[in-house]
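Quarterly update, task 2.4: magnesium ion-bound model.
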Amino acid sequence: MHNIRQYQVPLQKYMAMMDLQEMNERLFYKLLIENVEELLPVVYTPTVGEACQKYGSIFRRPQGLFISLKEKGKILEVLKNWPERNIQVIVVTDGERILGLGDLGCQGMGIPVGKLSLYTALGGVRPSACLPVTIDVGTNNEKLLKDEFYIGLRQKRATGQEYAELLHEFMSAVKQIYGEKVLVQFEDFANHNAFDLLAKYGTTHLVFNDDIQGTASVVLAGLIAAQKLVGGTLADHRFLFLGAGEAGTGIAELIALEMSKQTNVPVDDARKNIWLVDSKPWAHEHEPIRDLVDAVKAIKPTVLIGTSGVGKTFTKEVVEAMASLNEKPIILALSNPTSQSECTAEEAYTWSQGRAIFASGSPFRPVEYEGKVFVPGQANNAYIFPGFGLGLIMSGAIRVHDDMLLAASEALAAQVTQENFNKGLLYPPFANIRKISAHIAADVAAKAYELGLATRLPQPDDLVKYAESCMYSPAYRNYR
Ligand SMILES: O=C([O-])CC(=O)C(=O)O
Ligand SMILES: [Mg+2]
């Protein structure tokens, strides 16, 4: 750590950590686990975003498997080149929508690599069981196409049938070589492909989309926890979203599902409390409203959620309108990385005179406002997906079910202590993340057994203990 801390520039810390991962995997994970709050923003959001933008010029060795259009018809063979056979989790991207940064083509590889290192560090999945994959169908990023250091195919993105066939070959090959229980996590695909792939493979494969389902689960956990701060239940709230993409609609659907379970109302009725700016699938009867401030004034939401990928859209006017409507406005600025955040923590607290309950997608430092210190929560997907994946793996689940997402949200919300609430936190500190992941894994596994989707039988008596016993630990031995 002393060595890593010599670097002032986050990207240099990132490169030093990637070198360490390559050179001494055990030490990499030991550092990451023991210094998780300090290193998470280095190996993951926000620094990983910058790393992807500059991936070609900081390239050292391939850290994952690239599968390009040129490998069409040979994907099974390509997979066989990977040195490990016993794969449990694949994180795959096509690089079209990396965080809120757009199309980075092949340079998106930093995301599967980073997410899988969190599967290991936070969820205890063995490093050798993790496979990062980037599907290279080209890029529409003109700057990258002209960049001498670009590492991918220099062509416009393949779409339509050509795209679908490559993805289908990949999904079939993966099941053929690694079996039915391999978890495939889709990450940072563009909206249309993300929804299509999840719908298409959800019934035949064990698939999970972190941007839709993981984000939904982590945000729902924060909202369940927030009820302890503001009182009442989810059904007492009105939600307004800016951005109806993967995250926005994913969160909205999961909130509606949870509300409908809590209050026994049909999901369609629960949806009436949720509004998305510019959304077709969620359209309500209402005259058109042009901008967000007017939407806030007209809808009078108690919760404002930013999932647009566009920074600085929660302006002073917007936050002030939320604060004038609510004693404790809940404001979630979820777009990543920090540059795309809808507002900063400081803006949320200052413009609401210290009344906002705020969380963001990317980390912000504590803020002092009128002598009081506010610690912003981070609605970080890393709270959920590592434990969620571990729960699927340890129960031998063969499909993902929405009720498992609800179980994960409730498990995470239950880990927020009174002491955390006293500081205004909606999420527990990351320092305890392995314990949190074990609890999430246990509850997800329990749900898999309950739904008849688990294949590891008999069901262990104590699922938390069992989860802990499954977790990889980078322990050093004492030699005499
Ligand atoms: O990476 C994160 O922290 C959340 C995420 O998946 C994204 O923004 O695409
Ligand atoms: Mg993502």
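Highlight for this quarter: The mean pLDDT is 95.
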